[in-house]
Write a structure and sequence with these properties.
The complex is a heterodimer. By secondary structure, chain A is α+β, with helices and mostly antiparallel strands. Helices cover 36% and strands 9% of the residues of chain A. In chain B, α4 links the parallel β12 and β13. Chain B starts with 5 loop residues before the first helix and ends with a helix.
């Protein structure tokens, strides 16, 4: 049973900025479905009395003091930048969004 | 763009407003790392592996920021969550190198509060939906386009110094029933929030530096109809703009609806220049941020003891302070509102503390200095005149060495950088002529010039004396005490004052 539609795949692809050709949407829908079904099987094991868990360790309130410390110097910070202009990261133009 | 005059729009439609205010906290370090938050540092010099999203870097929450947001929540009469989590807001945009922003989703730390604002003598309760913790984004500069705006830009450059600075978002519930007051309510609410943040000491709340930012939501509906489609106006960077943006959207949306059109749900941008709004990103396709609990940060569970301890640190609230000062200065709500709206309450209080009578302090700041500040395009408090200067000039007035007119000349000179009041008085030779001799000479000359007026005064028409007093003030170039001139004049003519 396929629960993931072609439209779902197209939507996910857009969110992930992946260019998936029309003729491959069904293919990925099937694959995603297998993954989701596997995850769903884990859900079957969890009884109603097992709460959903977002964190694997039972910790609360981990804070740091508000003290500023030097980070990276600019050269190190920008060492892996694909392009630099005016000491800033240069990025391709962004369309349709603001 | 077609608009309907404001007053006319309100005869047919009811505005519904909602406000989202972002406050950048004034902590020393960022929200999830120890980078400095100083404003104006050289680009990309306050960054580290955490805020640059380098692999393996882990965030840790800043305790001072959490304390600040709890105090903000308490001051806004909110409930403080016993347990909540941060969430990832996923989106592709280079202002955040992680490709997500750490924020809060369905578990904000503060909920259900309110802030009362007074507009036109009416107390309006603005209900607060939520106050949540998040991090600020980097600063993008668009290049290559004609306008510096994103449309038509060839590329953008990014400075991540701001990325990760603690940001508090305060969201109101919808505010209905404000009618023609809607623009003023929006402005007053933001002003009140700003004053509150300042009193709490959690932020420098400078709208011009972006440490307080406002998005204004507005929709219109005909009386009795369901609420209309709302727009969200961004780029509203001053209190005045908040008011203008709401006002303009009322005028614009009314024109759309009058023509039988429909308002598009969209983000619009306020244009500072002409006070209009222009369409930005359309929200026809709902945003899909795929929020999920931030796995790298553990839940926050403020103990009730901690919350109560923070409650004890709350300062006198701005509304309470205003009531206290209004009573001490014996002024009404209207006069107080005038001071607040002009942004001179703090400086007037400081001037009173320097020993100036409250009435005099208010008079100078709301008259002379407000005018001078608006001419120069600065805030009154930033004028080059001090409370001590005003105290000194008031002393000189009280001793009879200066009158009001001369005092104004002294301040003009002080503002022009000619030195302290004493230096100006000495340099310009400004002093009330207190010797009666020259005054009597001037009075006689004026009487001789206007014998008909002299006759009127003699026959008991005392209001005619003003003409002679005025003439004497003119010949003495304002350096006479008008009251003394009048006394001498009536004495001269043998008339009872």
């Amino acid at each position: 049973m396929t629960n993931i539609s072609r439209a779902d795949v197209a939507h996910l692809a857009r969110l992930a900025r992946l260019a998936i050709p029309e003729d491959q949407l069904d293919h990925y829908a099937e694959q995603l479905d297998v993954i989701l079904q596997s995850v769903a099987r884990v859900g079957e094991v969890a009884a109603a009395d097992v709460p959903a868990m977002s964190h694997p360790v039972p910790l609360l309130n981990v804070f740091r003091d508000d003290v500023a410390r030097p980070g990276l110097d600019r050269e190190a910070a920008m060492a892996a930048a694909p392009a630099i202009e005016d000491d800033r990261f240069r990025v391709p133009r962004i369309l349709d969004e603001e | 763009m077609k608009t309907v005059p404001f007053d006319e729009a309100l005869t047919r439609y009811e505005p519904v407003i909602g406000l989202e205010v972002h406050v950048e906290l004034g902590t020393q370090s960022k929200m999830f790392c120890s980078c400095s938050t100083n404003f104006g540092a050289a680009p990309n010099t306050q960054v580290c592996p955490v805020c640059l999203a380098l692999p393996g870097a882990m965030p840790v929450a800043n305790r001072a920021a959490i304390e600040s947001i709890i105090r903000i929540g308490l001051a806004l009469n909110c409930s403080i969550a016993e347990w909540c989590r941060m969430a990832r807001k996923n989106y592709f945009y280079p202002d955040m190198p992680k490709d997500y922003q750490i924020s809060q989703y369905d578990e904000p730390i503060c909920t259900d509060g309110y802030l009362d604002v007074t507009v036109d003598g009416k107390v309006i309760r603005v209900e607060i939906e939520r106050v949540h913790m998040e991090e600020d984004t980097g600063k993008l500069t668009h290049s290559g386009g004609a306008t510096g705006r994103i449309h038509g830009a060839d590329y953008s450059v990014v400075d991540y110094n701001r990325a990760g600075i603690p940001l508090v978002e305060i969201v109101t519930k919808t505010v209905v029933g404000t009618g023609a007051l809607a623009p003023a309510v929006a402005r007053t609410y933001v002003a009140e929030l700003r004053d509150l943040m300042r009193a709490l000491g959690v932020s420098d709340v400078k709208m011009e530096e972006g440490s307080l930012r406002c998005d204004a939501n507005l929709s219109l509906n005909r009386p009795g109809d369901p609420w209309g489609t709302r727009t969200e106006t961004k780029n509203v960077n001053s209190l005045r703009s908040v008011e203008r943006a709401v006002r303009f959207e009322i005028e614009r949306q009314a024109a759309v609806l009058d023509d039988g059109g429909r308002v598009h749900q969209e983000t619009r941008h306020f244009q500072e220049g002409d006070g209009t709004t222009a369409p930005g990103r359309s929200k026809e396709q709902a945003e899909d941020y795929r929020y999920f609990p931030e796995p790298d940060l553990v839940p926050i569970a403020p103990s009730r003891e901690w919350v109560e301890k923070l409650r004890l640190t709350l300062p006198e609230l701005p509304s309470v302070r205003r009531a206290r000062l209004a009573e001490a200065w014996a002024i009404g709500e209207f006069e107080m509102a005038t001071l607040v709206n002009a942004g001179i309450l703090d400086i007037v209080e400081e001037t009173v503390a320097a020993g100036v009578a409250p009435d005099a302090a208010r008079k100078w700041w709301s008259g002379e200095f407000t005018r001078a500040a608006s001419e120069r395009g600065v805030e009154p408090a930033d004028l080059p005149v001090t409370s001590a200067d005003i105290a000194r000039v008031e002393e000189l007035i009280a001793s009879g060495a200066l009158n009001d007119k001369l005092a104004r000349q002294v301040f003009e000179a002080v503002l022009a950088g000619e030195g302290s009041p004493d230096e100006v008085v000495a340099a310009r030779g400004l002093a009330v002529v207190s010797d009666d001799g020259p005054l009597l000479e001037a009075i006689d000359a004026a009487l001789a010039e206007q014998p008909d007026v002299a006759e009127k005064i003699r026959s008991g028409k005392l209001q005619a004396a003003g003409a002679i007093v005025g003439a004497v003030m003119k010949t003495t170039r304002g350096q006479a005490d008008a009251g003394r001139v009048r006394e001498l004049l009536l004495e001269r003519l043998g008339v009872e004052g």
